[in-house]
Amino acid sequence: MTVYASGIEGAPSVYASMYAEVGDAVLARCSDLGCPGFNLVSVTGLDWNRDLSPWPADSVMTEDDGFAGGADAYAEFLTDEVIPYAEGILSDGDRVVAGYSMGGLFAMYVPYATDAFSACVSASGSLWYPGFVDFVESHGCRRTPRSVYLSLGRREHRTPHPVMRTVDDCTSRIRDLCESRGIDTVFEINPGNHFVDGELRLAKGIAWTLSRRRPHYVEAR
Q1: How far apart are CA 174 and CA 37, in angstroms?
Q2: On the chain, which terminus has fewer CB atoms closer than 10 Å, C or N?
Q3: Burial of 110 (0-12, 13-18, 19+ CB in 10 A)
Q4: What is the CATH number of the domain that holds 166?
Q5: φ and ψ at 111, to 5 degrees?
């Protein structure tokens, strides 16, 4: 865990599950975008397929990449250990959960696991995850987020994997559901596939969320 304190009293705190410690790069991208000041708490060293998956599921790419369904345990770790530690350093403020790829999936699952966060940033989220859309459509949140940011790369659904290529449809369905529940929601389309500009995509989600713009569909130029 790394805490990047803004030094701003009452600044919001973004808790991001990251594949590597790229907090400095994300903060630099946020600054370039004119993002309001915030604290960043990054958590790395995760087992991507275990800690960020909401329930067990079979592999989708290779025989040994199955998902263990450890998201509830990880959410408990955030609320019981990460948040208390971070807030011993930071001033109290709004909490946002954010992530990229499987981290984005976890960010969308968080409102169903804990009431500790008020907004979600799912950048190129793995919302194709088996059963996830059905789960979202059939369950209520423990705390309805004030806003939800969703994004994908324009080419992410162009994959030979039959499960993963549903990601655009799954993300659109979740956007529609969030909007139907009165949640301030955006679905942004970025250039490229899943492996392009990860720090920028995460920063764009953070910047939008903290600016609290009204819901709309953004088409990147």
Answers
A1: 28
A2: C
A3: buried
A4: 3.40.50.1820
A5: -60, -20
- Integer CA distances (angstroms), 71 to 84, 93, 104, in order: 19, 24, 12
Q: Which two tokens stand for residue 149?
A: 């940011």
Q: List helix spans (H) across 98-220.
A: 102-113, 132-138, 167-180, 198-211
Any domain includes 20 = yes
Does some domain include residue 72? yes
Please check whether residue 90 lies inside any domain of the structure. yes
* Chain segment 62-111, per-residue pLDDT in tens: 656 789 999 999 999 999 999 999 999 997 789 999 999 999 999 999 99
What residue numbers bound the domain in which 83 lies?
2-56+66-219
pLDDT of residue 221: 33
- From the list 77, 63, 70, the residue with the least C-alpha distance to 49 is 70
**Token reading at 170:** 């799954």
Residue with the bigger pLDDT between 10 and 52: it is: 52
Candidates 121, 134, 116, 123; CA nearest to 54 is 134
On whether residue 211 sits in a domain, the answer given is yes
Q: Report which residue type is found at 25.
A: A
How many domains does the chain contain in total?
A: 1
